[in-house]
Protein 1
Amino acid sequence: MYFIVIFLQVTVNLFSKYNIENIAITESGKKVVNINKKNLLAPYYKLPRVSSVKIFVNFKNKRYSGKKNIKRKLNGSFFIRKINDKLFLFQKLELNDYVLGVLNSEIEDIDKIPLEALKAFYLIIKNYSLTHLKRHKKIGADFCDIAHCQLYYISKKHNSCKHGNSRSEYRNSPLRHERGLFHKKIYYHNTLAITPYSSSCGKYTCDSETIWNKAYPYLKGKKLNSVLDKWQYKLSKKDLIRIVGKNAINKLILKNGCVKNGENFRRKINQNLGWNKIKSNVFTIKEFKTYYLIKGSGFGHNVGFCIKEAILLANQRMNYKEIIKYFFKNVEIR
Ligand SMILES: [Zn+2]
């Protein structure tokens, strides 16, 4: 049985780490635990199981301070670690509970999604998790709970935590009758396939080599039948020169609809001008007097699986195995 450790970020910005002052746990409104840096003497503290988990965190850093109320399902256990005089909050849970939790968090309206698309996405998340363990090994965690790794119950829709008393994800999952699926994984020959995914891919999916300079025989791009999430952005020449330099545009080469070096360019522009200005790696650029008009489609890096396109395929009566094989060349599901 696999266990996953998640590092609970109490911020939407991974790179401005809050300094947690204290963590309090309540049961029926009564405080049962209150941990701060001074009274946490051991480097590791496991929180007692209570009937409903409400965690209150006080945090402070140079720019922000405040309170955050985290409501979490009871799956697994919670613990606190003190590392370099900082408090970190973790949740440890079974792989399957984690995967179902990510599925529920990454998809807006889970009950409205066709079952075969959900089954495909479940396996994509599971393979992704198993092939990216220990992403935060410096602080002893596999994943964080924000988009840097995979979303895990951080959005507003989960604040009410209506399923909070369920001991397992199974009971409320649309996949609860699909137990056979829980034993399956995606393989390329005899190794677990790496399965990156995007919210949507627009006109094309891309070769992993084009986007990340790393080739996998099953991460091959293709032209899609639909064009979802069209977007455009006006990038002023002034901003271009300031952020990436004048020549950056010439270094972008279009290959099968995807922009080589696009990921690097996209990240730098977005970091400086706000997230999601350049939403994907499928775009074209047209020069005007004072700006470049960037037109693209899709939302994400465009390698591997595309959630919205998978839903379209399921609506066209493809089953989950066909959907996975549509995005990943020559893989097996077993
Ligand atoms: Zn992360």
Protein 2
Amino acid sequence: MQRRRFLFTGLTLATASLVGCGGGDDGDAVVLATRRDVTGLSASERQAFIDTLHGMKQTPSAYRAGTNAYDYFVSAHVEAFESHMSNAHRGAGFLPWHREFLMRFEREMRRVSGDPGMCLPYWDWQRPGSYQSIFTDDFLGGNGDPSDLYLVKTGAFREGVWAMGGDFDDTPDEFPDTDGDDVPDIVGPDRLSHRGLTRCYNFLGQYRDSLEIIDHYMDRYPLGRVLNYPNYDAGPFDEMIARSEVDFSDPAQVAAWQQLMADSTSISMRKYLEVRLHNPVHGMIGGQMGTGSSPNDPAFFLHHCNVDRLWDLWQQHHGNAGYPTAQQSHMSGLGARLGVYAEAVRVEDTFDLAAHSGVRYEG
Ligand SMILES: [Cu+2]
């Protein structure tokens, strides 16, 4: 807490709790709900979150026929992840795509719980020790059982009470370290099971029994660095397309690609946030979190809520400076439609957190 306060000294945080409703005919003010730090939730609020997610598994999706309100998000993420033509990952659309994803998830939480003010909490993984009150027996559960496929056997989402949704790939290979960014590959045998949620804490291929590894990792990447970036992104704006043009059997091309990624990460807030902060958290938790079907782990939503919060903080300083134009990227630039969603959602529809999601972050 101390460290965070210190870093935020002098920053202007959102203070207004009321905003005019831009699109409304009646001019009513809209009350912004507040997304709070998960470690500050009361026992009953934690239980309400658990109950709501379980309720979503039992309720048909509002977004897609034939699936439940929770599993829709697993499937949508898998679809976005598998398509290199999606702008959900490894490109400028990463933050807009996931802001829309979280807004939809929260909308479903509210519908299922009947609580119109319910919000996703965020997990501030840059605050040392924050994992300790989340990955507990009375909340998200802990590490998987190494003697049994790394199945999670503790907490409210343990094997037997929390079903895996959607199709998933049994060979996790997400976030390979082929881009010179010091972020570890996920290595080892299969860590997924249709029996239930898996987690396999690891760092640099070494399996651990604690998420303390996250504290050590984040020491190298303090919060202030995100806010210092003047520009949202830097080319290549669609890394998967650029990467597909690299011949990885040619050492010279590999070296050039790694240099390009290192150089562009040094000037792109989005690449820094996605690749150096977001990806490793997925990888260090492992199991489902290390794959495209990561929304199977409820930790996904707390994690991404924090990613979105960091983007919001950055926007308070820099607006949308450096977001690619349509000319710079037809796939992720201004005017581009976010992939996978049935409705036409444009990247810029998500830029204003309050107008788009109807929320603010605690702070
Ligand atoms: Cu994602």
